[in-house]
Amino acid sequence: MTELLDLIALSLLPPWCALGAADRLRRGESSTGVLEWLLAGHWRDESEKRATLRSRAVAAVERAAASGITPISWNEPAYPAALTTIIDPPPVLWLRGCAATLSRPSVAVVGARAGSPYALAVAERLAADLSAAGLVVVSGLARGVDSAAHRGALAGGGATIGVLGSGVDVLYPREHAALAREMEAAGAVVSELVPGTPPQAQFFPRRNRIISGLSRAVVVIEAGEKSGSLITARLALEQGRDVLAVPGNVLSGRNRGAHALLRDGARVVESAEDILDELGMSRAGLPAGARSAKAGGGCGGPECDPILACLTPGEPSDLDEISERTGLTSTKLLPRLFELELRGAVARVGGGRFVRLDTSC
Question: 0.90 cut: is pTM over it?
Answer without folding.
Answer: no
